[in-house]
Automatic annotation (TrEMBL), chain A:
Transmembrane segments: 91-113
Species per Swiss-Prot/TrEMBL record: Tumebacillus lacus
Protein name listed in UniProt: Sporulation protein YqfD
UniProt-annotated stretches for the region Disordered: 386-408
Compositional bias per record (Pro residues), positions renumbered to this chain: 390-399
InterPro entries associated with the record: YqfD
Keywords: Membrane, Transmembrane, Transmembrane helix
A Pfam entry, by short name: YqfD
Keyword Coiled coil: no
TrEMBL record, chain B:
Top-rank lineage group of the source organism: Bacteria
Transmembrane segments: none
Coiled-coil ranges (or none): none
Protein name in UniProt: Sporulation protein YqfC
Lineage, top ranks: Bacteria, Bacillati, Bacillota, Bacilli, Bacillales
Organism of this sequence: Tumebacillus lacus
Length: 408, 93
């Protein structure tokens, strides 16, 4: 029975309604010709309803003509009709198919690579790059990736700084977990070097870790002069000299301070205007009228519609005009001098470096001219003037192979 | 006359051999399953089909099937299957 139903469904079945007096006659004739008819019933209005196969309709036609029967096709069931309906909606179906295919394809590529654990010795970017080299990158087919075990060992080969690499594929996201090798003790550098002065200054203090100090406290040194020598025992051995030498360095600064200054102050009063800009040309759309302030500051903000690289040429501009009051200030000479000293200090420190300290500020000259105070100040700054300079040890006076450490 | 003689011979043979008569005689075999399904084998055609009455032609006579909401479930040259609320059948020689 079910098999029959499947065959009928495959071939296509039609529910037909027949009207006429001689339907039983037709049924007999059709049966005699071997046309299968089933589910024949009588309707309330006297019509006959039955089911026949799709391809038997044309065989019925001559019989119907003979017995003057009108036939109406009703519901159509079966694969041929489904196909026909599908063909009528082919674009809809194509869309559905495209959707499914694209969904499948998009879900089978890598969308993101996430790196965890790369903090100290490795940057996440370098891990990502290494991963990209073995095929883990955006838009790569997940199906083409080898086994995660293989990926992990490959990643470990690529990155010698890690002890473990874990690769996990979670849907369209690849999670890479790395464990960095614990940093060992870095070997002491052994390359021979001197510590030399970077600036001219008076040596104040020093701390030698390795090497031999060649200057005394209070000595004036020139830039490039060796402070801590890496050459020991009259050139027989060389070391990697390290240490710090602190010296007083003088920085002269010349500062010009105006005695009267103006200061702008916002009053809090604002006026707003709204514009639309077409290719940069503003056309006002709201907030007409003159700006009622003598002095004001203007602040314009453009709302830009941007789609990737395309900037929409019509933009909205909101401009705020803030009222300002200009205040005149006059400084006394003393105040101005203080101010100038501060400036000179900042100037000196910017040249000397972060760990420097201004010890003293000596006012050399101070002069008021055209309402401006001209000051010359010398800053005495205590700073670290040491700088390592590598050198190649010359041939030792005594050719003793054990005495000189060859440079690695 | 000749046919009836042949009929008689067949009937006699069926009697003597004790086999179902429909296999030898040209008579219908009617199977009623409850009041729901009726199988009529060896019929000759549909004479009338109504919601409450189905008249089938037989080799000799007619078969009337009474009932409510009668449906011809399937129809073949030698067999017809009727479903519905069958309330009675009448065999007319």
């Amino acid at each position: 029975m079910l098999g029959r139903w499947f065959v009928d469904f495959w071939k296509g079945t039609v529910v037909v309604t027949m009207r006429g007096d001689r339907v039983p006659e037709l049924l007999n004739a059709a049966t005699g010709q071997g046309i299968p008819i089933w589910e024949i019933s009588r309707l309330k209005n006297g019509d006959y309803r039955m089911m026949i196969n799709r391809h038997d309709i044309h065989r019925l036609r001559p019989l119907m003509r003979r017995s003057q029967i009108k036939l109406r096709l009703g519901r159509k069931i079966g694969v041929p009709f489904l196909l026909w309906r599908a063909w009528r909606r082919k674009f809809f179906l194509a869309g559905a198919l495209t959707f499914l295919v694209s969904l499948y394809m998009l879900s089978s590529v890598i969308w993101s690579v996430e790196v965890e654990g790369a903090e100290k010795r490795l940057s996440p970017e370098s891990v990502e790059q290494a991963a990209a080299e073995i095929g883990i990158k955006k838009w790569a087919w997940i199906g083409h990736l080898p086994d995660t075990d293989e990926l992990q060992s490959k990643l470990q080969d690529k990155l010698p700084q890690i002890t473990f690499a874990g690769v996990q594929i979670q849907g369209t996201k690849v999670k890479i977990q790395v464990v960095e090798k614990v940093e060992g003790v870095t070997p002491q550098p052994t390359a021979p070097q001197h510590i030399v002065a970077t600036k001219k200054g008076t040596v104040r203090d020093y701390a030698v870790h390795r090497g031999k100090i060649t200057v005394a406290r209070g000595e004036l040194v020139q830039p490039g002069q060796v402070l801590i020598s890496g050459t020991l025992a009259e050139g027989k051995s060389s070391v990697h000299a390290t240490g710090e030498v602190w010296a007083a360095v003088y920085y002269p600064s010349k500062v010009v301070m105006p005695l009267t200054t103006t200061r702008k102050e916002l009053t809090g009063e604002t006026v707003e205007k709204h514009f639309l800009t077409f290719w940069g040309k503003p056309i006002q759309i709201w907030g007409y009228g003159k700006i009622p302030y003598a002095e004001f500051e203007e602040e314009a903000e453009d709302k830009v519609l941007k789609i990737r690289d395309f900037v929409f040429p019509i933009q909205y501009r909101h401009t705020v005009y803030r009222e300002v009051e200009i205040e005149k200030m006059t400084w006394t000479e003393e105040q101005a001098t203080e101010q100038a000293k501060e400036l000179a200090k900042a100037d000196a420190l910017s040249k000397a470096g972060q760990d420097a300290k201004v010890e003293e500020q000596i006012l050399l000259r101070s002069q008021t001219k055209d309402g401006k105070l001209e000051v010359e100040i010398v800053n005495r700054v205590l700073e670290n003037i040491s700088k390592p300079v590598p050198f190649t040890p010359g041939p030792p006076a005594d050719p003793d192979p054990n005495a000189t450490k060859p440079a690695p | 006359m000749r046919a009836s003689w042949r009929q008689r011979v067949k009937k006699m043979a069926a009697d003597m051999l004790d086999v179902p008569k429909d296999s030898i005689l040209d008579v219908p075999r009617i199977t009623l399953i409850g009041g729901l399904q009726l199988y009529v084998e060896n019929y000759r055609g549909v004479m009338e089909f109504r919601d409450d009455l189905l008249r089938l032609a037989l080799s000799q006579g007619e078969l009337h099937v009474y009932g409510k909401s009668l449906v011809v479930k399937s129809i073949f040259p030698a067999e017809v299957v009727i479903e519905g609320n069958i309330s009675g059948i009448k065999y007319l020689e």
